[in-house]
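From the shared-data thread, chain only:
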Amino acid sequence: MPERPLPRPESDALIHDPAAGMDRLVEIMARLRAPDGCPWDREQTFATIAPYTLEEAHEVADAIERQSWDELKSELGDLLFQSVFHAQMAQEAGLFGFQDVVRAISDKMVSRHPHVFGDESNAKSAEQQTRDWEAVKAAERAAREETRTLDGVAMALPALTRAVKLQKRAARVGFDWPSTTEVVDKIIEEARELVEARDSLSEAEVAEEFGDLLFVMANLARHLQVDPEASLRAANAKFTRRFMRIEDWLAETGRRPADSDLTEMDALWNRAKAEERG
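Structure, as tokens:
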């Protein structure tokens, strides 16, 4: 039977102090990664934790979408823990610590808001502040020697979000359609090519053509000032909500969707739409 670790009075007191705030959380993380900590936590790396970080960010967005404020509190805590986890691993590798992370984001916010924390006037429109923000970020990218237009757009972003960010960067240097008319024309063209070629192209080529269509759809979202990720999440929620109503109505007759057919379920779908519209 393995020996229990020796008591750590100061650490234990901090961990069990509900009023200790961030110091408590940082200490919990350090203990989880300690030699006598949690085997699972000790085995993790930046690469293995990154998917969890993305998942927690999505769960925050989901709680906001559903206006589930108690869940949001919990999900924000989970996301914060991800930052602490990465910072702990970085500290162990001699890269930086959690306080360096806090200092870096604090310095960045002060630098990017001279109209709040500096000498610049804050009598600016939101549009002007956005332009100023982009100028500051461009200067930061230049300092990091990110000289190409698309440098610095994170690879791990959700694909639709990254598509919009790439297109915004390209638009700043004039590579953009002048209006939604040209974008819609391109969508029609890409959709037609995909349908026409579906029987003659390889699976990989079909996937590529479909990707082109999605990329142009993201461009249309940008021109319409619509967040494609938020729109798709809303569409997913709507589909889920309406399909559950189909299941409810079928259950009233002792059946499941597998016991129905498309004609009946389509009629129930339209009934669910009418119900939502009041």
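Residues 56 and 78 are 6 Å apart (CA to CA).
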